[in-house]
Amino acid sequence: MAGDVLSQSEIDALLSALSTGEMSADDIKKEEETKKVKVYDFKRALRFSKDQIRSLTRIHENFARLLTTFFSAQLRTYVQITVASVDQIPFEEFIRSIPNMTLINVFEVPPLDGNVLMEINPNIAYSMLDRLMGGEGSSHSNVDNLTEIETKIMTNLFERSFDNLREAWVNIADIDPIMTELEVNPQFLQMISPNETVVVISFNSIIGETSGMINICIPHVVLEPIVPNLSVRYWMQANTKEVSPEQKAIIENNVNKSVLPLVAELGTAQISIEDFLLLRESDVLQLDKLITDPLYLKVDEVPKFIVQPGKVKKRMAVQILESLEGGDGDDE
């Protein structure tokens, strides 16, 4: 009983048995002590910890956001993709859970070994195809009747979407997804043992007015080399890595090459819009500074130096007289 969640009817029956004397608290305690054995299904072996599942969830939540942006731009319609669930189940159970006729992208993720599946519900797939062909995004075709042109269009679309998967995984592994085939019948997929554990990431997807599921199936054998990278400790270490001297030198070199605008302001003047519209060549404006007053040299619109104007080899120039400390935008 310990660890199990009772339904309301079971709770009512238990309270009724206690109140009528049919069962005592000691009986319940003895029953709990005797039920120490838990049933374990070896066909549903749990290869990933809750911590690792949470990491996979975070990765694919990022992937869902990137995919939403990508498909919105490609299909030019309302797109919303969110993670619905992340589960570890036998491969056979995943195959039974998807439609007999659907759209399945099979792709490799080098340097990792093995194949990954992306299954797209036929309603979603044909809504995408209809939008790409200039339609309103309706879904009315049969997935088993894909023409060569339709297959090529869908293949190109999903091959380009893999850039988002690469970006979502960049903190865990530097993968390079490569599409190998487009399948419509899951029964023909025999890439791993039926009892092999896989992680299935399910996405709720809305394309225009059409909704459906997109599932990504990742076998355990594919993730096995990088399973340690899915721990929270790895994420924390990755976020607190110190910058190496070489990286510091590169950053400093790039900063030194940055270009900033320098402006020596001679002064300012205020005039009415009417006067501004009547300005003509040779008109004179009176500024708020005298010829003998020093000027401010602004770096990216922020006053940083006091200067005086002059000439160097027939070119206008300024000479720095003093630095301004603690001015606007000064960090010192």
UniProtKB/TrEMBL annotation:
InterPro entries: CheC-like_sf, Flag_FliM, FliN-like_C, SpoA-like_sf. Residues 256-323 form the Flagellar motor switch protein FliN-like C-terminal domain. CDD domains: FliM. Gene3D superfamilies: CheC-like, SpoA-like. It is a peripheral membrane protein. SUPFAM superfamilies: CheC-like, Surface presentation of antigens (SPOA). It comes from the Bacteria. It is found in: Bacterial flagellum basal body; Cell membrane. Keywords: Bacterial flagellum, Cell membrane, Cell projection, Chemotaxis, Cilium, Flagellar rotation, Flagellum, Membrane. PANTHER family: FLAGELLAR MOTOR SWITCH PROTEIN FLIM, YOP PROTEINS TRANSLOCATION PROTEIN Q. Belongs to the FliM family. This is Flagellar motor switch protein FliM.
